Amino acid sequence: MTGRTLYDKLWDEHRVCSEPDGSSLIYIDRQLLHEVTSPQAFEGLRLAGRKPWRLSANLAVADHNVPTEGRERGIADPISRLQVETLDRNCQEFEITEFTMSDPRQGIVHVIGPEQGATLPGMTIVCGDSHTSTHGAFGALAFGIGTSEVEHVLATQCLVQRKAKNLLIRVEGKTRPGVSAKDIVLTIVGKIGTAGGTGYTIEFAGSTIRALSMEGRMTLCNMAIEAGARAGLVAVDETTIAYLEGRPFAPQGEDFEPAAQSWRNLHSDIDAVFDAVVELDAKDIKPQVTWGTSPEMTAPVDGFIPDPQLVQDAVKRESMVRALQYMDLSPGMAIVDVKIDKVFIGSCTNARIEDLRAAAEIVKGKQKAAGVKQVLVVPGSGWVKRQAEQEGLDIVFKDAGFEWRDPGCSMCLAMNADRLEPGERCASTSNRNFEGRQGYGGRTHLVSPAMAAAAAIHGHFVDVGALEPVSTPIEISQSAAVQPPSRVKTGQTHKRKKH
Amino acid sequence: MKPFRRITSRVVPLDRANVDTDAIIPKQFLKSIRRSGFGPYLFDEWRYLDHGEPDMDCSHRPLNPDFVLNRPIYWRAQILLTRENFGCGSSREHAPWALEDYGFRVILAPSFADIFYNNCFKNGLLPIVLAAETVDRLFGECQPGTMMTVDLPSQTITTHFGECIAFAVDPSRKHRLVNGLDDIALTLQHAEAIKAYEARRAAETPWLFNAMN
Q: Could you give the 3-state DSSP secondary structure of residue A285?
C-alpha cells in the first residue's frame, strides 16, 4: 500500500459511509457558528422540527457585526443588533454553548477556536465562513460551508462530500528579515493564483513552515481559500502540541498525553503521493503589498505596479485594467510611493498576539504619520486583548496615535461601523482586497502586521526588512507566549451540559 | 427546493473573471436573518450608482446604464454566462440566494469556486462548467436577446443557433436537483451508521466528544 497524505488520513478517519457515485458521508467533529451565516440554518431546523444531532460539537460566537468601541452601549445599527440577538436566542433555544458579546472570551471565530482548544488536531471542523481553513494549521481538516450545510451539520453531524485532490506546497530555507507568514502566503497566492488551489486540499510543508509559530501557521492556512483551496493543512509537531496544552477545551491532565500521542501521527507518510507539488525558496520571498482587487495581484515591496499591456491573456489584462482603475494606480509606480489614508491591523488572518507584537515592535516610540487619518488595532479576541495589555502593547499603539479597540471582524469586511469611505486607501492585515470589501469605494492593500504598522508610521509603504531594528526590543515573557491566560470568570455564557 | 428540469431563457453575458461573492451580494445585506429578498441587491455595487443599504426600496435608485443586467432586454433572464472562478471569496450562501431570488437558474462558466459551486445545488441553481473555448465562443455569439435552452435530465444546452452542447454534472447532485430533494432527510437515512461511527470514535478518541463548557 502506498503512503497516505495527511489529508488522506483525515478523510479516511471521518468517512461514515460511501455512496455508489463516489461521494462520502463525512463526520464533522466540530462546528463553529457565528451570527451572519447561522440564522437561516436554525430557522430551517425549526421549520422541519429537527434538533441538533450532538450539542457538544458546537460553539457559537458573535463576531462579524459587533462594535469595536462603546460596546457597553450595545449595537447601534438595529439590523446588526437583530442578527446578534437572533444568535443569542437560537443558542438559548437549541442549548448551544455561546460566547456572547460581553463574554471575556468573545472574539473572531477563527481566533477563539484554537485559543480555547475547541480546535484540536485530527478533527473535522466546519463553519459558515470561508476562512475556516485557518484551523488546518493544527492538522485538522477544516473548511468553510454555506448555510444549508450549516443546517445539515446541525441536524446530522455529517456532510456529503467528494474528496479533493492533494496539493503540496513546500517552502524551504530561512526567510529574509521582515518576512512573515503573511508574506509567504501572499507570495503563494500570487504565484498559483486565486483559482490555483481550486479542487485541492493544500498541505504546507518544508523547513520554513516548520519554523513558523502556530500563529504564523494559522495565517498561512487562513489564506488557503484565497488560493481557491477550501482547506489548508500543516502537519502536527511539538509546536502544535505545546500550543494546545492547558487550553480550556483541550484534554486536561492525564488525558492530554494519550491525545498528544495520537496527534503525533498526523503527518503525511514519507512515500505519500500528491497530485501536484509547488516549491518555493524562502530567500526569494520579500514583504508583499497587493496592488489590485484580487489577492493574487501582489508585488514585493521593492517592486512596481505592473503594466497590463504587457500581459498576453485578454481576460487577465482586462481584470488588471479594471483593478488599477478602481485602485487609482498607474503602471510603473513604485510600491513604496503609494500613500495611504488608513491602516487596519486585525482580522482572522492577523489579529493574534504575535501579530500585535510584530506591529508594536515597529511602532514603539514613534508616531502615526500626519497624513494618515486613522489606524485601527483590533485584537482577535478578548484573551488576545488582555494579553496584549499585560505586555503593554496597547500603550505602544495609543502613544503612537493608534486606536485600540475591542475584538471582532471589524474593518476586514466592514459589517460593523468600522469602514473606509469612498476613495480611501488602506494598508490592511486582512485577507481580501475585493472592490468595496472594507467599505463602499474603499481601496485595500493587503500586507503583514509589521508592514501595516510601518505604513502607518511613514504614511506610505516601506520595506520593514530594511528598517533599523528598534533599540529597545519589547520584553516578551516566554511563558506568556505559549500559555493561555488562566481561566477567567465568564460573562453571559449559555453553558449546557453534554448532550 | 424548486426542482430543476428544463429552462429556456435569454442569456446575460457578464464578461468578467473572478467575480467574487462580495460583488454578487455586498456585506451590508448579510445582516438579514431571512433567506429571501436578496434579488433586488444582486450585484448591488455594479448595478446601482448609489450605495445600497438593507431594506432600501430599489425601484427609485439610480441604475448604472453600463451594467449589462440593466438592459431592459435582459429582464427576467434566467441564464448567466460568465468567466472563470465565478463565486470566489466568501462562503456566503447569500450569493446563490441573491442569484436565485433575482430569477437566475443557470450559470455558465469555465470554472467556479468550490464553496459557491456547492452552495448553488442547495438552492435550485445549476452551475455548468464548460470548456474555456466554448465559453469564449458563446460570448462571441451572444447578442442581446440570444436564447438558450438548458435541459438537466439530458445534460444538454441548445444554443440560439441550434448547436447542442453536452455538459457534465455529478449524478447524485443531478438526482437531487431534478427531484428537488431534501439533503438532510437523505443523510438521516444513514442515522444508524452515524451512531455506530460515533460510538467507535468516542471509544478511540474520547477527547473529541468533550462537553463544550
A: coil
* Nearest-CB residue to A79 (from B23, B54, B89): B54
Q: Domain check: are B121 and B212 in the same one?
A: no
Please list every residue in chain B whose beta carbon sits closer than 8 Å to the beta carbon of residue A161.
none
Query: Looking at this predicted complex, what is its ipTM?
Result: 0.92
DSSP at A16? E
Provide the percentage of residues in chain B whose pLDDT is more than 90: 93
Q: Nearest Cα to B85, choosing from A196, A278, A431, A143?
A: A196
CA-nearest of A426, A277, A284 to A347 is A426
With CA atoms as reference, report the closest residue to A276 among A203, A222, A325. A203
Interface contact A148-B26, CB threshold 8 A: no
Beta-bridge partner residues of A124: A141
Nearest to B208 among A123, A146, A316 (CB): A123
Task: Please indicate, yes or no, whether residues B142 and B37 belong to a single structural domain of this protein.
Answer: yes
Q: What cell was used for A237?
A: 509537531
d(CA B38, CA B55): 10
Q: Quick check: A413 and B27 CB within 8 A? A: yes
Same domain, B190 and B88: no
Q: Do B142 and B187 reside in the same domain of the chain? A: no
- At residue B163, the pLDDT reads 96
Instruction: Give buried/exposed letters for B182-211 (b at 16+ CB in 10 A, else e).
Output: ebbebbeebeeebeebbeebeeebebbbbe
Average of per-residue pLDDT across A28-36: 98
Number of domains, chain B: 2
**Residue B42 belongs to what domain range?**
7-146
Contacts of A127 (CB under 8 A, 6+ apart): A31, A32, A33, A34, A37, A109, A110, A142, A144, A145
Chain A contact present for B136, CB below 8 A: no
Closest CA to A251 of B213, B204, B208, B199: B208
Chain A CB within 8 Å of residue B88 CB: yes
Inform me whether the C-beta atom of residue B166 falls under 8 Å from chain A C-beta atoms.
no
Nearest-Cα distance to chain A for B161, in Å, is 25
Chain A partners of B81 at a C-beta cutoff of 8 Å?
Answer: none
Shared domain check, B117 and B192: no
**CA proximity to A150, closest of A226, A222, A65, A52:** A52
Is residue A256 within 8 Å of residue A250, measured between CB atoms? yes
* Cross-chain residue pair A130–B114, CB shorter than 8 Å: no
B56 and B103, same domain (yes or no): yes
Cα–Cα distance between A294 and A173 in angstroms, integer? 28
Report pLDDT digits (tens) over B33-80. Answer: 999 999 999 999 999 999 999 999 999 999 999 999 999 999 999 999
Q: Is the separation of the CB atoms in A158 and A26 below 8 Å?
A: yes
B202 with B115, same domain: the answer is no
Chain A residues whose CB is inside 8 A of the B93 CB are 37, 40, 128, 146-148
Residue B171 lies in a domain: no
